[in-house]
């Protein structure tokens, strides 16, 4: 979904059909909503009433139009849709309960993408009105270590503990007004929360129920105003009796709150939190670190742990595998599957480009053409069924067209023969057949596939039985074309690494210090050569040395081996995609005049005249940024996947001989990942790939064609494909700074990780 610039806050407008009756949902893990419309508009567009909402839809970006939202309790859904289709906004609308029909008591947990390009929910709209410039009161943010923060945010004890601390502090003060101030502050904070819910309820309802809700809101606004006034009441205006009563009330409230925090429950929650954090790669030392000291990737893992620890009815995970290594991905996959054994297993909605990861899902939820489509099964089965259905419909239409053409030809022949010989039988036959075409064509088969009968299938006669067979049109395939590399003129390895060892510089406390111990080797005796056309895959867990090796290969930040050599071809053009490329691009365009840059203007500036505008547009279009998307939409409003395409365009315009790609699939939708997999598998240049996406690695590096392939393609099929037969496809494992070739490639590495995960979960 196109993001919104910070200076123009967006609005998510949600409407749906609602019943007038007060129906309580039997299971809060289920959603059943009809007539769902979701539109995103610019925040500066004022809307009021039905006309305002209709106008907002006409000027905004419509994500869903008259869709049906159906979630069944305990099912695991993979939300599928292209970059820019609005998946993240749709999930945010569910999590924020902006959609009318989602019960307020439903517990919904969400993990959003890191730096996700999602519109801020400034207000929402329903069948009644819109809520603007209101946010739910939040408790002050605490700054503890990772374990404390995860437990704090994941449990309801956060508010309880803060109230306990506030009351304890007030009661222990020497000032007799301390307990009263603490009590009144807590009361007002609770009133603010209640006011927020009443305000939302009033705007979600219409008619008599809406009027009653608005009356309740008005009455409680006075209560909230009074509680706020009491906080600032001067001490001299408080009577001795009031002081005594409220002090006793504060003491009683403190005792009640302390009973809610049971030590046994706390220990169980802490134990569960530690298991989740360990599964996501946190060591004991990392759990004790302040959250503020963590990098973006580790903070995302902290947020993921929080979402998993929460007691929830609906769990939403938007790209949870970003920044996880394969150990974390497989652990998360197994952990989410294990939740089905619980009686109150949450309903799961997952967005992920990792095809192997989403095999944990039982159903697909497809967001396409502003509609939601459901499929019980996995992605390969869905794609196969769609292909089979299209083939069947095509054959049916061809047979129907052939039969119709035959009847039309027989009518023409009968008319010609009847008129020539004055044969009334021929003319009557021609008239009967023409009537069949005009009045009864398409009625041969009922909706159930049997012979059509007018007295039984009359509904079909009036509605759809005579419709033309509608063959679904193929969606425009995701575009990803890699330009062919320029000629090298003379042979030789593109990159050659011989016995390379790398150690990070040791920091000394003072200049006079000598004999300081050397830092451990990040890389040890690495040997690697990359020739034109080679495919090299590097697998390994976080901290194994993959990023260090990549930096050594591309000479990033002046990284040189401590010993050994790294040499490159004299004419080598290298393209390097960093795993932090999107964040760096966002930082580049997020400051100064660059905030208005588009993909076209940025790339035009960088090519410096080497390509004309038409060639730049052609390159961007080949990577999935066509037309106005490239020239009119600022980079600050592009989604994460679109920024990946822009960053790749900055690398590919030089027609490199070798691409070094470090986690390039992050932020991309599965269609683009599929297109990239196809493009890179047979590209003439060399590819060095670092990725935790097993399906992507198997395709690009190992050359596997489809999910069901167990062997590589037969490259010697009789045509003598010399280029393919000379292509080297090798998968390495990086562990402890050492590079080891894997005979069975990705499968061998994944199996070893699965064994580790089994021990962790066991």
From TrEMBL:
Region described as Disordered: spans on this chain: 121-140, 707-730
Stretches assigned to the ABC transporter domain: 28-394, 506-734
Pfam families xrefs: ABC_tran (PF00005), ABC_tran_Xtn (PF12848)
Matching SMART domains: AAA (SM00382)
Composition-biased stretches (Acidic residues): 707-724
GO molecular function: ATP binding; ATP hydrolysis activity
InterPro entries: AAA+_ATPase, ABC_tran_Xtn, ABC_transporter-like_ATP-bd, ABCF, P-loop_NTPase
Native species: Sodiomyces alkalinus (strain CBS 110278 / VKM F-3762 / F11)
SUPFAM superfamilies in the record: P-loop containing nucleoside triphosphate hydrolases
Protein name: ABC transporter
Source domain of life: Eukaryota
Record keywords: ATP-binding, Nucleotide-binding, Repeat
Keyword Coiled coil: no
